[in-house]
Design a protein that fits this description.
The protein has 275 residues and is of the alpha+beta class. The protein contains five helices and 16 strands. Keywords: Dioxygenase, Oxidoreductase.
Length: 275
């Protein structure tokens, strides 16, 4: 079954970025699992990396996107508070102290930071949540800024459907959320910006989906192009590693997306990140 595989985040100073994420993600049970010349992959021990720090592939400086943020799932209130305190101490910027966010849900306990490159992050603990969910899912959700919600829905409805995912949150004046049917936790939102300013895409940021097979990757790419997306790389084998088949798109607001599959029997624990 297709699923959210991870994200990439651009950096200017690798040592600074790596030190920040090592500190901020440690309370969430994550650490550096893969280190290469230009990238570092963070995740939980024994699992695949889900958050990659890298130099943007296009050689341009990284930027943060207005409307873009990543929400990590935390196993407790203490983990949310640890994320916030450690992130501030490691060079992050405050975007919202730990506390209940009752406008989201009665049990939504969260804190917000920006990393040293300006990327917006959140750690959230659902006070009534199932601990097994935290073990299975590193993310609560990812938000992508959207300047025209109807245009965004027209793009994401068919693109997510091609991966077997559904629109599970429908707030026509604010956002649309996509995930597995019946899930409380949509994986990705197309969302109007919180500050009311235009949404912008982030250079170096990418949302990565794992598909079931090459045909699904091809269907995902075709659905995106047919519904206002932009080609960033046609479906095909990639030289990242044996058995890797992927494609790239940008949504109508410029947010970069990637879908891939691995040949049957290939080890999924260490995979490449971006094109």
């Amino acid at each position: 079954m297709s699923r959210l595989d991870g994200i990439t985040l651009g950096y200017r100073d690798r040592a600074r970025a790596q030190a920040f994420y090592a500190a901020a993600l440690a309370p969430l049970g994550m650490g550096a699992l893969v280190e290469r010349e230009a990238e570092v992959g963070f995740g939980r021990p024994g699992a695949a990396p889900v958050a990659w720090l890298l130099r943007p592939f296009n050689g341009l400086p990284p930027t943060w996107g207005n409307g873009t943020h990543v929400a990590f799932l935390a196993g407790s209130r203490e983990a949310v508070e640890g994320f916030y305190k450690a992130g501030l101490a490691a060079g992050g910027l405050d975007e919202g102290a730990p506390g209940l966010r009752l406008h989201y849900a009665d049990d939504y306990y969260a804190a917000y930071l920006r990393d040293p490159d300006g990327n917006k992050l959140q750690a959230v603990h659902y006070l009534g949540g199932d601990p097994a969910t935290v073990e299975a899912e590193p993310f609560s959700h990812i938000t992508l800024g959207c300047n025209d919600l109807e245009r965004g829905r027209a793009f994401y409805d068919p693109v997510m459907a091609s991966l077997g995912l559904a629109r599970v949150v429908d707030e026509p004046d604010l956002s649309y959320g996509y995930g597995r049917a019946g899930s409380r936790l949509p994986w990705v939102y197309a969302h109007r910006t919180f500050d009311g300013r235009p949404a912008t895409w982030a250079n170096g940021f990418e949302v990565v989906w794992q598909a079931d097979d090459p045909r699904q990757v091809e269907a995902w790419h075709a659905a995106g192009l047919a519904n206002g997306g932009f080609d960033e790389g046609a479906p095909g084998p990639r030289s990242y590693r044996p058995g890797y088949f992927g494609a790239y798109l940008r949504d109508p607001d410029g947010n970069k997306l990637h879908a891939f599959c691995l040949a049957e029997g290939r080890d999924p624990l260490v995979r490449p990140t971006t094109e």
